[in-house]
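Researcher: Please translate sequence to structure tokens.
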Amino acid sequence: MNLCKTLLFLFLLSTNIYSQNDCIDAIVVCGNSGFKGLSIQGAGNVQEITGENSCGSRENNSVWLKISIKTSGTFGFIIKPESSDLNEDFDFFVFGPDAKCTSLTFPIRCSTTNPNMAKLTYNHTGMTADYFDTSEGPAELGDGYIKWINANAGESYFIVIDRPVGISNFSLEWLGTATFDDAPSISVPVLSDLNITKSDFSGQANSSLIFDLTANSPKITGSQTGVKITYHTSENDAIINSNPIADPTAYRNTTSPETIFVRATNTITQCYNTASFTIKINDKVVFPNNKVEVCDENDANPFDGKTKIDFDQVTKVVFDNADVSGLTINYYLTQSDADNNSNQLPNLFNSITPFEQSVFIKAFNSQLSASVAEVKITINPLPPVNNVSLVQCDSGENANGFVLFNLKEANAALTNNNPDLETSFFISKTDAESNTDQLSTEYTNSSNPQTVFARITNLQTKCSSISTVNLKTNVISVQTYLLDIACDDDENEDGIHTFNLTNANIPFTNTQELKYYATENDALLEQNQIQTPSQYNNKVPYNDFVYARIEEGNECFGISKIKLEVIRLPDIEIIGTTTNVCDNDSSYFAQLDAGIKDINTLSDFVYVWKKDGVEILDKTASNIEVNTSGIYTVTVFNKNNCSKTRIIQVVSSNIATIESVEVVDLQIDNSNKIKINVSGSGDYEFSLNTPNGPFQDSNVFENIKSGIYEVYINDKKNCGLVSKTVAVIGVPQFFTPNNDGFNDYWNIIGLNGNEYKNSKIYIYDRFGKLLKQLTTFDNGWDGTFQGIPLPSDDYWYTLKLSDQRESKGHFSLKR
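Model: Translation complete:
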């Protein structure tokens, strides 16, 4: 840290001013500047430090400082009374790191040691790196120093310096590596450059004048931004930012000379800097300006650098239009003539030196001594006078010679392409000379031909000349050129297409220039030229025009129309629904159509059908029938030969072939399952016992009861239905042979004569005695042995199937 970048001298704070004695008016510390000569009187309007803090003291005679940390580091300070008397007792309190006047809480550092009571040999105090305690005092406790602070960028601290005993002023020196926000700089090499001197031309004693203090503002800020400038009549007001001059643009001095104090404040950090300058009323005439510019327009030759000079106008410039009615003012050719009051020049003077005439002005009155100064009068030439013509075309259907002109087209000829010259246009020469009732540069002539007037002004010298612009219209018949129509086939179908405008083959000679424009107005005004006519997209969908302008020597030779037409494509569904034919049925035909959305327009189109890229020569209708698979396309042409193609995929399908049927049977709780395995190119669905559905996509049926089933397999693409009889074998768990017609016989369920005709069923009692042998053709066992009914009991069976499977189990006979 710079221990003392700059010293800020403060001469402030009388016993009636409490500006820095309260937190809200704390001095903003900037640039790590120290202070000296700081006087403190009183505790302010608000007692903001209570005696309950760790240092046991409060404000007596205090000053508040506010610090914002710019870069992180350590910071401390040393407070040194101007008097070394040990009775001079200075205390301090530090609040932070995010202190606000409305919520100060307890200080994080404080020292209230009394040097005399603590028997110290010095009376300075502060925060340094050499100490570790953060508070000390009051009275004899402590040694005057505590530990400095490790601060982070962006933190804010308040420091209160208090003098409970003594009358001495003090200085303050900052320590550590942290930096504070920088104050704005006063951007003038020498402060005296800010001094303002004026003369009182009234001739009255005890003069007082109006000064524009803000003339110094740009000098003070220079290239700095975010800096607010205020002006004050005392240094104290500038430092504490109080009582700024209400209207610094019109400040009337109270004495001469008078010191004005300026405050430059950073609007973000509130850091500030101050300076002073003087305003003074001179006792002799002061000439604010000694250079005057006039135009070479008040004589017969406006281009010779000589003119008639009106000294009344020169005086206005020299004195910044101030009221000089109280002065006697004369002009002379030489300094000697002015000093001797001889050969005074007339008020209207014909200059004798081309382009820069030197004269001497002499001014005085009864109160001001005479002043003489050389005035250099620059005589600026007028812009050149170039009378030009603009020739426009009127090729509309009701051509009458009145069309839109772009008057700016005359600029190049009027100004010789000098960028310092600007033009404006008027109906009359009088309007042009007085610069009133200016015309729009987009102007429709009121007669054919018509002359308008151009005022050419030099932007640097403000000198003007008047030229004429002759407007003439060539009335020509309109001619329309046609480009080949375009089909709207660029994949957007929005009526917009790319055209090559040059294909219109509009004839023009090698001395002429052909340009293209999107609108007739653009063609007339020669604005918004189409830069790439070979790749132009029409702006109006389907039907549009562009305009071709032929020029020769900046004169319109003709404007023609070029018609741009985009034809809509047939309105069809491009992607057709995929359909199929049946390999197993040559009589099955698929119906294909061209996808025309409006069936009433079917006869408006020509249809070309192709299969796998090969044209089907005998198919020219909007729909056809096919019985072979492939990729079919139909291209639909309208009368303008614009086409769109529809794609239809025809796939092959056929009836299903049953490869096998897997049956999981003889399961308890009807958890039997059937799985049908098929082959074929079709898309198949399955049902049990219902040839008309409902069908399921899965080829597996689960939780099937035992019995005989018919399994149906259907081709979803209408190529046929196949079926197969399937037996699901099940074993009844009991039977009741009581001749009631229900469960009177026991037999295996699901055995049919064909598939299981060689199957055998054996029934035993619990001791293994064979009671009955059954075949698949028997009704079943009636519960008797040799004609004698057997009792209710459990009996056992053995099932030997013809497919070599064997199953054993038991069942109950109930009576």
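Researcher: Any highlights?
Model: Residues 1-18 have pLDDT under 50 and may be disordered.
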